[in-house]
Amino acid sequence: METWRIVAAGSFIVGGLIMVLVGMAQARDRKHAQASDVWRAALIGLAAVAVIALLIAYLLPSVAAWGIVAATAIAVVFVTMMD
């Protein structure tokens, strides 16, 4: 596996885990939310991060992989810095 694929997948995983945590917090903050809603958000988010990370690591071309990493980084900055 090429080095750029490892770096891109690792970068995406870090950003993806942050987005999963944000999704879990938003699920918890909803009215009438239960613990199962938070766990469901976590499982769906982690499954999506795992599938996309595997695609980046093995299948996607470099432009698409780095585009996904950049979009994730922008989303993390936007979601975490906005009030």
Task: List key phrases describing it.
transmembrane; transmembrane helix; 83 residues; mainly alpha; 3 helices; membrane
Q: What is the H/E string?
A: HHH
Largest sheet: none
* Total helical elements: 3
Instruction: Show unreliable segments.
Output: none
Helix content: over 70%
Account of the 3D structure:
The chain is mainly alpha-helical and 83 residues long. The chain has one domain (3-81). Helices cover 86% and strands 0% of the residues. The chain has three helices and no strands. It has helices at residues 3-29, 35-58, 62-81. The chain is elongated and about 45 Å long.
Give a quick precis of the structure:
The protein has helices spanning 3-29, 35-58, 62-81.
Summarize the helices and strands and which ones pair or pack:
Blueprint: H1 3-29, H2 35-58, H3 62-81
Helix pairs in contact: 1-2, 1-3
